[in-house]
Amino acid sequence: MLSYRHAFHAGNHADVLKHMVTIQLMRYLGQKDTAYMVIDTHAGAGVYALDGDYASKNAEYETGIAPLWNRKDLPPVVQEYVDLVKSLNPSGKMRYYPGSPYCAEKVMREQDRLRLFELHPTEGKVLEENFRKLEAHALAQGQRPAARGKRVMVHRADGFAGLKALLPPPSRRGLVLIDPPYEDKRDYAQVAQVLADALTRFPTGMYAVWYPVLQRNESRQLPERLKRLGAKSWLNVTLAIHGPAPDGFGLHNSGMFILNPPWTLEPMLREVMPYLVDVLGTDDSAGFVLESGEG
């Protein structure tokens, strides 16, 4: 199924959670000089126009980045995320939203590597073009890569299948980001299967899975399946901005499940999540869940 376009959902509350957490995972990896690799299995287009036809249709960014844009009381980790988004909007007007690939490229260092997979033909083409523009802009500014090898590589291919060939990365340090559209309920089972295989190839790797919290059984069961995969440790965080709609449609709650999370992540989230609930929540059902354990 190749109908999903993330542009419809760019900048929403789920993106706030996903990108804020991803940035902090990369910051932790960056504390050591040794290079690391980030692999994004469902990269999307990389950058989205919030005033474009797709994003403006439902204006989901009003549930996420928009309420944070002009806040003066942002916690440091939220401030870092918002500042990254603002770096894509030098005019100060909120026009563009960075997807996970752009966030990763901004945080990674010269020696680090980014591998992006996108199967959707249109999204994959736009992703390639966006990174060509980034590279051309860097060259125009006199920024030439100091390290050998391709820093960013885009694969117009199935990320689930392509992941195998990249694990373990040469440095034995890396983050795998998995966030399929879940339009096909088989995605839930495939996420668990892919991670089970990945852990045999790269047991010390860090794996971050975004998932929607829905009424369907597959969604409710996914975190429990991931807890049983045998990783050394895990962390699960969800953010709900309101209660479920009576008709069951719309995304009100989503989660990030991290295998082998850094020890710094849980205390950071305990401080930040109440703030996000307070600012993004729209009714008394808004809240968060934060749990962790060992494999």
Structure commentary:
Helices cover 39% and strands 18% of the residues. By secondary structure, it is of the alpha/beta class. Helix 6 (121-140) links the parallel strand 4 and strand 5 (152-155). An eight-stranded mixed sheet has the order 5-4-1-6-7-9-8-10, with helices on both faces. The radius of gyration is 18 Å and the shape is globular. The protein contains ten helices and ten strands.
Which sequence of SSEs, written as H and E, runs from N to C? Answer: HEEHHHEHEHEHEHEHEEHE
**Helicity range:** 25-40%
Task: State the shape.
Answer: globular
User: What does the radius of gyration come to?
Assistant: 18 Å
Strand content: 15-25%
N- and C-termini, Cα separation: 33 Å
Mean pLDDT: 91
| Residue runs with pLDDT of under 50 for 5 or more positions | none
Strand pairing plus helix content: what structural class?
Answer: alpha/beta
Number of strands: 10
Helices, by number, come to 10
Largest sheet: 8 strands, mixed
Summarize the structure.
With 295 residues, the protein is of the alpha/beta class. Helix content is 39%, strand content 18%. Strand 4, helix 6 and strand 5 form a beta-alpha-beta unit.
Strand and helix layout:
Elements: H1 13-29, E1 37-40, E2 47-49, H2 53-58, H3 65-68, H4 76-87, E3 96-98, H5 100-107, E4 113-117, H6 121-140, E5 152-155, H7 159-162, E6 174-178, H8 186-201, E7 206-212, H9 217-227, E8 233-240, E9 253-259, H10 265-280, E10 287-294
Parallel strand pairs: 1-4, 1-6, 4-5, 6-7
Antiparallel strand pairs: 2-3, 7-9, 8-9, 8-10
Helix pairs in contact: 1-4, 1-5, 8-9
